[in-house]
Design a protein that fits this description.
The complex is a heterodimer of chains A (about 260) and B (about 280). With about 260 residues, chain A is mainly α. Chain A has a single domain, classed as MetI-like fold (Orthogonal Bundle), CATH 1.10.3720.10. Helices cover about 80% and strands about 0% of the residues of chain A. In chain A, helix 9 runs antiparallel to helix 10. The longest helix of chain A is centred in the last third of the chain and has 38 residues. Chain B has one domain: 3-Layer(aba) Sandwich (Rossmann fold), CATH 3.40.50.300. Chain B has a six-stranded mixed β-sheet, with helices on both faces. The chains are: A mainly alpha (about 260), B alpha/beta (about 280). At the A-B interface, helix 7, helix 8 and helix 10 of A face strand 6 of B.
Amino acid sequence: MKRFLLAAAFFGLLVLLWEAVYRAKIWSPVLLPSPGQVVKYLEGAAADGTLWNATVITMRRLLVGYVIGLVLGLPLGLLTARSTVFRDTIGTLALGLQTLPSVCWVPLALLWFGQTEAAMLFVVVMGTLWSVVIATETGVRNVPPIYRRAALTMGSRRLHMWFKVILPAALPFIVSGMKQGWAFAWRSLMAAEIFVTILTGFGLGQLLHYGRELSAMEQVIGIMIVIVVIGLLADKIFFSPVEKFLHRRWGTSQA
Amino acid sequence: MHRAGRHLSSATEELQVIAPSKLAIDKVSKSFQTASGTVLALDRVSLNVAEGEFVCLVGASGCGKTTLLNIIAGLERPDGGTVLADGKPVTGPGRERLVMFQEPALFPWLDVFGNVLFGLKLKPNLTNKDRRDVAKYYLELVGLSRFERANIHELSGGMKQRVSLARALAPNPRVLLMDEPFAALDALTREQLYGDIQEIWKARRKTIVFVTHNVREAACLGDRVLLFSPHPGRIQEEFIVSLPRPRDINSVDLAAYATRITKALKSVGQAEAIAAK
């Protein structure tokens, strides 16, 4: 409760500061709207359904792309950890492509897929995939050999070994890779939505883009806040519980 | 007996099976490639272990005793020679011969109960209820019933090794292979475990091969103590410890055995030093 109050006070202070800067008229109100104007925009956008539709569209793209990234990335990571052929090929590729900011995929995606949902998905998958591959590989590579030996003596083999020993042992690495993949997916999707206007649906990124075109700063800031809140919620709902479990089980640092 | 015993006959049946193995190790050799050349870790080592016998292998580090243990476990292949368990050649690891490692090697993603259950889940012909009952029985045997749901990192070093022992005993192996399991523990905890292991061995008769560099420990636990000499690894001498059980690690009679074995160990060391010159 005390922590909650502290956090509430902190964010309240930020809003007050913002209001104060607005009232001081340092910048034109066109460039810096007041918190009240932003809230009014968000209320309006929520009332006419724009905000909800855009959020649903964006989340759908994000989740589908992310899941594809995971489904491809996990097995690729496992293969990379286990075979030198995969390590020298896919592993090196993943390492290289992970350093490539995923917005760099946007021009290519546009030319290959045109202004379609496929282009969006492609960018999100590319954002997710490589960090998942690398995290899985690192996780598997770091499993102490003694776990395998102990499991071998108890009769664990092949699939049982993979699913009951190696994957659980690598879980802390895999989860942090999944978290990083999520962050990259989110970033790449926003980049794609801002750059690519497609007619199959307006996501949050597109709302942001049109806010800029219309010089509607309250829209730009409002959407940015929505994006931040979604990011925070995703962390609290999906990742925090898993990380808490891992910390408790493994006895790693308790925050 | 434990409380679940009267409900389920098959769990009790499972617990009544006590069938230690006979081991026959015949001219086993093993060498390793290292940076400084080939090391002959084991040189035609032969050894017979009777059903239910407690054999200790003692020697300086690097004398090949752990390698021999791994070969018996099936975790490593010998370059030459054979290992027979009850007349059948050992070709790979299996639940008939379980290992207790120097590090507890417990799985951090499972709780204490999950760890003890791990090997049991891989054992066919048991219902899940049987498995749970058996796991409970062994946790009680090592005195950790209260810690069933504890996470591994919450346990002390001694408790970890107790869980590790329960995990190794649970699938009811015929042979228990112990690789310096108490080396990393403090003296007090170790002394408790010497008592416990003797009691458990009385209750659940197993063939035990126990590797250690602690001579007193070997004299306290073993029916027989085999002294290993390094480079190449060979069995140098054999001591039969004919003291009544349970044995107290601090008893005077035991000290006499330990002194004899230590002397022999030292002379091996000296011969080694002279050979090195």
